[in-house]
Automatic annotation (TrEMBL):
TM region(s), chain numbering: none
Protein's recorded name: Glycosyl transferase family 1
Protein species of origin: Pseudomonas laurylsulfativorans
GO molecular function, one term: UDP-glycosyltransferase activity
Keyword Transferase listed: yes
GO biological process: one example: antibiotic biosynthetic process
Domain of life: Bacteria
Domain Erythromycin biosynthesis protein CIII-like C-terminal: 303-418
Origin organism lineage: Bacteria, Pseudomonadati, Pseudomonadota, Gammaproteobacteria, Pseudomonadales
Keywords noted in UniProt: Transferase
C-alpha cells in the first residue's frame, strides 16, 4: 500500500495566506494526501475549523500567544499615519520598518521550527510567506513556495517593482522607486543575510528576502492580470493557479431595513486594515447616504461602532468566498487574496490600498479594466460614490469579468496546486 503523503503547509500569520493554503489543503485531502498546518500559536484553531491537524510553533520569546496575536495589530495601528502617503514615501516610513519586524519574527521562529520539523518529518513543506526560514531549506524534503502576493513579488525587467504601485510603462517612476527601495531596505537585507548564512542557507539577491523554490513555485496571479515577462517563467517550476479559492458553506444575506432590494456591496480591508477605524468610520458615513446595501468587515474592532446605518451590516468576520457569490461590487485594500477572489466571482474591484502589494494590485486592476484605483493620498472617500456608480453601470466590464470568472472557476486552481505538489519527483 502506498504511503499517505504528509504535506505540511506553513502560511504566514495573516488570514490571506492562511485561507489560500486552506483551499490547497482541501484539494490535497481530496486527492488522498494528509495535509497538516504549521502555524503561529495565535492562529491555532483556524485550521482545525476546516478539519486539519495543527502544529503550533512553540514560542521562543516571553510574549504570550495573546501578545503575539496583537503584535501586528499594534504595528499597523502605529503605522496608520503613513497609509495616506504615496508608495514612494512609504518606503522609509512603513516598508523598511515592516521588513525589520518580519525578520524579527522569522529569527524568533527558527529554532522552534527546526525542532518541530524534525519531529513531524513531512514529505513536502508548502511555504506561503515573504521571507525564508533556514529550517525549511534544511529539512531534507522538497519545499514549495506560494506567491500569494502580487506577481510583482517575482522581479522581471518588464514587471513594475514590488510594492511600488507603478505601471511597467513608467520607466522613470520604476527606476526611482527601485533605487530608493534598495537603499532603504539594505540594512534589513544585510541583517537577514547574516542570519541565513549562520544557519547554512544562501541569502537572496539585494532587496529580496525569499528565493524561489528549486522544486515548485505556485503563483496566485490570474490570467487577466498577469504580466508579459521579459524572461518567461519555466512552466515546470512555476505554476499559475488562476485563483486559489477555498470552499465555504453558503452565506445567507441578512435583511436590511433600507434599500433591501438594492445592489449588495462588500467592504473589507482585511484583518489588519480594520485597525484604521477612523478611515472605516469615514467610509461608513459616506456609504450611509448611498442607495445600496453594504456588508462591512470591521475585524476585531466591532465594539467601536456604536451606531450602524440601516443599509449597513457590520461583522467581525465573513466567510469571504461565500459572501462574494452574493455581491455586485467588492471594495477592498488590494490584498492579493481579495483581488483574486473578486476576479474569481466576477466582481469589479474598487481598491483603496493602504500599503504593501495593495498598491500593485490597485494599479493593475485599473490598467487592465477590472476595477478602479482610489489612492488614499487623493481623498478616496470623496470620490467613492461616483466610482461605485460607474462600476455598477459598466456593462462591458461586467461581461469581461463574467468571462474571466467562468474560466477561473472551470480551472480549479486549488486542484492544480495539489496535483503539482503531489507530482514532485521525491514523492
Amino acid at each position: 500500500m502506498q504511503k499517505q503523503q504528509l504535506i505540511a503547509l506553513f502560511p504566514e500569520a495573516s488570514f490571506g495566506a492562511a485561507l489560500n493554503c486552506i483551499g490547497i489543503a482541501q484539494s490535497l485531502r481530496e486527492l488522498g494526501a494528509k495535509p497538516v498546518f504549521i502555524c503561529h500559536e495565535h492562529f491555532q484553531g483556524l485550521f482545525a475549523e476546516y478539519g486539519f491537524d495543527e502544529y503550533p510553533i512553540p514560542q521562543a520569546s516571553p510574549l504570550s500567544a495573546a501578545e503575539h496575536q496583537h503584535y501586528w495589530e499594534r504595528f499597523i495601528e502605529r503605522s496608520i499615519p503613513y497609509f495616506d502617503q504615496t508608495p514612494l514615501a512609504q518606503i522609509d516610513s512603513y516598508v523598511a520598518p515592516a521588513w525589520e519586524a518580519i525578520i524579527d519574527t522569522a529569527i524568533e521562529a527558527e529554532k522552534p521550527l527546526q525542532q518541530l520539523l524534525s519531529r513531524l518529518k513531512p514529505d513536502v513543506i508548502v511555504l506561503d510567506n515573504v521571507v525564508m526560514f533556514p529550517a525549511i531549506a534544511n529539512a531534507g524534503c522538497p519545499w514549495v513556495r506560494v506567491v500569494s502576493c502580487a506577481e510583482t513579488e517575482l522581479p522581471d525587467a518588464a514587471v513594475p517593482p514590488y510594492l511600488s504601485g507603478c505601471l511597467a510603462s513608467d520607466t522613470t517612476a520604476c527606476e526611482r522607486y527601485t533605487a530608493q527601495y534598495l537603499k532603504a531596505v539594505a540594512p534589513a537585507h544585510e541583517r537577514f543575510s547574516q542570519f541565513l548564512l549562520s544557519n547554512g542557507t544562501a541569502p537572496s539577491p539585494p532587496g529580496q528576502f525569499l528565493t524561489d523554490s528549486p522544486w515548485l513555485n505556485l503563483l496566485l496571479s490570474p490570467t487577466p492580470v498577469r504580466y508579459e515577462r521579459q524572461q518567461p517563467l519555466d512552466p515546470q517550476r512555476y505554476v499559475y493557479l488562476d485563483g486559489c479559492v477555498r470552499r465555504e458553506a453558503p452565506y445567507i444575506v441578512p435583511d436590511f431595513p433600507r434599500h433591501n432590494d438594492a445592489p449588495l456591496i462588500y467592504l473589507s480591508f482585511g484583518s489588519l486594515g480594520a485597525a484604521d477605524t477612523g478611515m472605516m468610520k469615514r467610509l461608513i458615513s459616506t456609504i450611509e447616504t448611498l442607495p445600496y446595501r453594504f456588508l462591512v468587515n470591521v475585524g476585531a474592532y466591532r465594539d467601536m461602532y456604536t451606531t450602524v446605518p440601516d443599509n449597513v451590516y457590520l461583522d467581525s468576520w465573513f466567510a469571504q468566498p461565500a459572501v462574494l457569490k452574493e455581491c455586485d461590487v467588492f471594495i477592498h485594500h488590494g490584498g492579493n487574496n481579495s483581488f483574486c477572489e473578486a476576479l474569481y466571482f466576477g466582481l469589479p474591484s474598487l481598491i483603496i490600498p493602504y500599503c504593501w502589494d495593495g498598491h500593485d494590485n490597485a494599479a493593475r486592476a485599473e490598467e487592465v479594466g477590472v476595477g478602479r484605483y482610489l489612492p488614499r493620498f487623493a481623498d478616496p472617500v470623496a470620490t467613492l460614490p461616483a466610482a461605485l456608480e460607474q462600476l455598477l453601470a459598466d456593462q462591458a466590464m461586467k461581461q469581461r469579468l463574467k468571462t474571466f470568472s467562468e474560466r477561473m472557476q472551470a480551472t480549479r486552481g486549488t486542484e492544480i496546486a495539489a496535483r503539482a505538489i503531489l507530482a514532485l519527483p521525491d514523492l
